[in-house]
Specification:
This protein is α+β, with helices and mostly antiparallel strands. It has helices at about 10-15, 65-80, 185-205, 245-260, 310-315, 320-335, 335-345, 350-355, 360-380, 390-400, 410-420, 425-430, 440-455, 455-460, 470-480, 485-499; strands spanning about 15-25, 80-85, 90-95, 105, 115-120, 125-140, 140-145, 160, 170-175, 215-225, 235-240, 270-275, 280-285, 295. The chain is elongated and about 95 Å long. It is an enzyme of class 6 (ligase). It holds the Pfam family GatB_Yqey.
C-alpha cells in the first residue's frame, strides 16, 4: 500500500495539466514464433515450445515470419499510418533472465509504420490520439517469482523462467504525447485502450486478451503546472493488463505526482508497477534511455522492403473497422449515442448483431441481451459472451414471442432452461410446457372461474369501468402460471361482461 501523500483528483487538475503517453504491446496470433518455427499455443507446459533459435543458442539464425509482418502492416493501416518502403531490425541489448539471448530483436530508429492516429470519443467529445510508431519485436519469456507476498522478485525465495513466450511476435504501438485532456485524462486513456483493442480484434491478427497478456499497456504520465510550457518528468507504469486498470493508473499517478510537486519534490523518471488490489502504483526501477540499450542493426536479418503492391493488397483486405461499424449499426438500428455506448461497454455489439443476422428484430435483440441476459451475466460475475446461450437461441426466443407462442414472462423461463443446459429454446418450451394458453375454450373456462371469484370487479366492468379488467387479467395470468395470452384474455373478459 502506498504511503505517499496524494492530492485529491479535482485539486490536482486545478493546478496541473496532465500529459499522457501509452505504449501498447500486442502479441500476434500467428501459429509460429517471430523468428523460428516453435508453436505459440497459450498455456502449454513450461519450456515445451522452445528451440535453439528462441533460446539464443550458439550458431542458430533467425528467419522472419511473413505472417507476423502482414499482421503489423494491417494494424498500421488500420491506424492510418504510413507504411515505410524500407526498414530493418535492431538488437536491443540488456540482461534480464526472461531474455535467453541477452538481447531482444526489435526495431529502433527505422520502424515499419509511422505517423498514424486513432480517434476516440469520451462523453460526446472526440479526441485524436496521434500514433508515433508501430514497430515489430519479439516477446520475452515469463518469470515466476516463488514465495513472498507480492509475487515480485523482492521477498521471493526463488524464481523460475518459462521461455515458451520468448520469441512470440510482438507489436508495439507508441502514441505521441496526449495533451489537452484535462480532467478527462483517465477516461481518454481507457477509451484509447478500448478502441485499440477493438480495432486489433476486428483486423483479426490477435485475440488481444488482456487477462492472458496478449495485450499489455505501459502508461506514461507527467504533470506540468497550468500555464507552463515545459512538460514534467514522466513515469511509466508497466504491463497494465485491464482497461479499468489503465484508467485507475492514470488517476493515481496524477494524484501522486501532484502530491510530490506540491511538497516541493521532484518526480523521478522511473518505471512503476500497478497494484490491482489497491489501485496504486509502486516504484520499480529507474527508466533507461535508448543509449542504455546499445542498439545496433541486427546482423543476422536482412532489411525489410514491403512492396507497394503487397501493402495495397493488405489494405484492400481490411475488414470493416469498429468506428465505421458503430456508425452503420447505429443507423440501421436507430439507437442513440448513449445506448450504443452502453452496448459496446457491455461487450454486446457482436452478440446483438449476430442475433439480428439470425432473424431477430434489432429492438428485440437489444432487449434480451442488454436486460435479461446482461443481468444474469452480472449475477454470475462473467462476461456476457461467456453465458451458455447463443445468438441463434436468442433469435429463436424472440421469434417465439413474436408469433405468440410464449410471452416475455415465459421467455425468461425459456432462458432459464437454455442456460441450465436443457436444450434449445423449442426443446425447453416443450419439456417445461411453457406455451401460451390462447385456446378460447381453455381460456374461457379459466375466465369464467375468475369472474365468479371476483363479483365486485365484474360488476364494475358491467357498469362501464373497463379499466377494472386489468385486475381480472392479473388473476387469469396467476391461474395459468403466466401462460395465458394476456391481450386475448382481456378481450374475452370485456366481451363476456359487456355484451
Amino acid at each position: 500500500m502506498s504511503t505517499e501523500t496524494l492530492v485529491p483528483y479535482d485539486e490536482a487538475l486545478a493546478r496541473y495539466e496532465p500529459v499522457l503517453g501509452i505504449e501498447t504491446h500486442i502479441e500476434l496470433g500467428t501459429k509460429t514464433k517471430m523468428f523460428c518455427g516453435c508453436a505459440t499455443e497459450f498455456g502449454a507446459e513450461p519450456n515445451t515450445q522452445v528451440c535453439p533459435v528462441c533460446l539464443g543458442l550458439p550458431g542458430s539464425l533467425p528467419v522472419t515470419n511473413r505472417s507476423a509482418i502482414e499482421g503489423i502492416i494491417k494494424i498500421g493501416l488500420a491506424l492510418n499510418c504510413s507504411i515505410v518502403e524500407w526498414c530493418r531490425f535492431a538488437r536491443k541489448n540488456y540482461f534480464y533472465p526472461d531474455m535467453p539471448k541477452d538481447f531482444q530483436i526489435s526495431q529502433y530508429d527505422e520502424p515499419l509504420c509511422v505517423d498514424g492516429y486513432l480517434d476516440v470519443e469520451v462523453e460526446g467529445e472526440t479526441y485524436r490520439i496521434e500514433i508515433e510508431r508501430v514497430h515489430m519485436e519479439e516477446d520475452t519469456g515469463k518469470s515466476l517469482h516463488v514465495g513472498g507476498a507480492t509475487g515480485r522478485i523482492h521477498g521471493a525465495d526463488h524464481s523460475l523462467v518459462d521461455y515458451n513466450r520468448a520469441g512470440i511476435p510482438l507489436v508495439e504501438i507508441v502514441t505521441k504525447p496526449i495533451v489537452a485532456t484535462g480532467d478527462k485524462a483517465p477516461l481518454v486513456a481507457r477509451a484509447y485502450a478500448t478502441e485499440l483493442r477493438e480495432l486489433v480484434r476486428a483486423v483479426g491478427v490477435s485475440d488481444v486478451r488482456m487477462e492472458q497478456g496478449s495485450m499489455r499497456c505501459d502508461v506514461n504520465v507527467s504533470l506540468m503546472p497550468k500555464g507552463a510550457s515545459e512538460w514534467g518528468t514522466r513515469t511509466e507504469t508497466k504491463n497494465v493488463n485491464s482497461l479499468r486498470s489503465v484508467e485507475r493508473a492514470v488517476r493515481f499517478e496524477i494524484e501522486r505526482q501532484a502530491g510530490v510537486l506540491d511538497a516541493g519534490g521532484k518526480v523521478i523518471q522511473e518505471t512503476r508497477h500497478f497494484q490491482e488490489a489497491t489501485g496504486t502504483t509502486t516504484s520499480g526501477r529507474s527508466k533507461e534511455e535508448a543509449q542504455d540499450y546499445r542498439y545496433f542493426p541486427e546482423p543476422d536479418l536482412v532489411p525489410m522492403a514491403p512492396s507497394r503492391e503487397w501493402v495495397e493488397q493488405l489494405r484492400a483486405g481490411l475488414p470493416e473497422l469498429p468506428a465505421a461499424r458503430r456508425r452503420r449499426v447505429q443507423d440501421e438500428w436507430g439507437v442513440a449515442d448513449k445506448e450504443l455506448q452502453d452496448i459496446v461497454n457491455a461487450g454486446a455489439l457482436d452478440l446483438i448483431e449476430d442475433t439480428v443476422r439470425a432473424g431477430a428484430e434489432p429492438a428485440a435483440a437489444r432487449k434480451w441481451w442488454m436486460n435479461e441476459l446482461s443481468r444474469r451475466a452480472t449475477e454470475q460475475s462473467v462476461e456476457l459472451a461467456s453465458l451458455p446461450v447463443t445468438p441463434a437461441d436468442v433469435a429463436r426466443v424472440s421469434a417465439l414471442v413474436a408469433e405468440g407462442s410464449i410471452n416475455d414472462k415465459l421467455a425468461r423461463q425459456v432462458f432459464d432452461g437454455v442456460l441450465a443446459g436443457e436444450g434449445t429454446p423449442d426443446e425447453v418450451v416443450e419439456k417445461r410446457g411453457l406455451k401460451v394458453v390462447s385456446d378460447e375454450g381453455q381460456l374461457g373456462s379459466v375466465i369464467d372461474e375468475v369472474i365468479a371469484a371476483n363479483p365486485d370487479v365484474a360488476d364494475k366492468i358491467r357498469g362501464g369501468k373497463v379499466a377494472a379488467a386489468g385486475a381480472l387479467v392479473g388473476a387469469v395470468m396467476k391461474a395459468t402460471r403466466g401462460q395465458a395470452d394476456a391481450g386475448r384474455a382481456r378481450e374475452l373478459i370485456i366481451e363476456k361482461l359487456t355484451s
